[in-house]
Amino acid sequence: MSLQVLKSGLLDTIQDRGRFGYAHLGINPSGAMDTIALALANMLVGNPAETAALELHFPGPRLRFELPALFALGGGDFMPRLNGVPIPVHTPVAAGAGSVLSFSGIKTAPAHTSLSGAASAWNPGSAAGAPTGQPAPAAFRAAPCKPATSWRLSRYPNLKK
């Protein structure tokens, strides 16, 4: 996934699940603030749960997709928009080349979300790129996984069970 930053967000960083087992050397694990959101966004686009992703905090950035891409947002709902059209969180979304992702407010907590892109870009085979803001075709969605425990789902009230 290739992105151009049009406007930076507040404390946006690239994060993974962290590094464990080095506390005896004085090194903390670091990693994503919300590892469940990170894993969710990654699994929605078919990546391993621990794959690094952009961790965004509100106010979020404005990003332009330089190539067609399949992406997902996991965690807090910052009311994302693709080319000005509202898109869902916790759902794989196809973006065409030149599409702009922006955020307009906080709908649900937490105040951070993870943006993950598929390892290989989805190319619908047209010069116009992917249909903007449409859910990705079933062939490009991640395989179903075991549902998270109910205490984890309760953190995300807008996530459908």
Main sheet: which strands, in order across? 1-4-9-6-7
Give the integer mean of the pLDDT values: 76
What is the tally of beta strands?
10
What share of the residues lie within helices? Answer: under 10%
Contiguous helical run count: 2
Q: Would you kindly provide a written description of the structure presented here, covering whatever features stand out?
A:
The chain is mainly beta and 161 residues long. It starts with a strand and ends in an 8-residue tail after the last helix. About 22% of the residues have low confidence. It has a 5-stranded antiparallel β-sheet, with no helix packed on it.
Compact overview of the structure:
The protein is mostly beta strands. It has helices at 35-44, 150-153; strands at residues 3-7, 13-15, 53-57, 62-65, 69-77, 80-82, 85-86, 93-95, 100-103, 108-117.
Secondary structure elements and pairings:
Elements: E1 3-7, E2 13-15, H1 35-44, E3 53-57, E4 62-65, E5 69-77, E6 80-82, E7 85-86, E8 93-95, E9 100-103, E10 108-117, H2 150-153
Antiparallel strand pairs: 1-4, 2-3, 3-10, 4-9, 5-8, 5-10, 6-7, 6-9
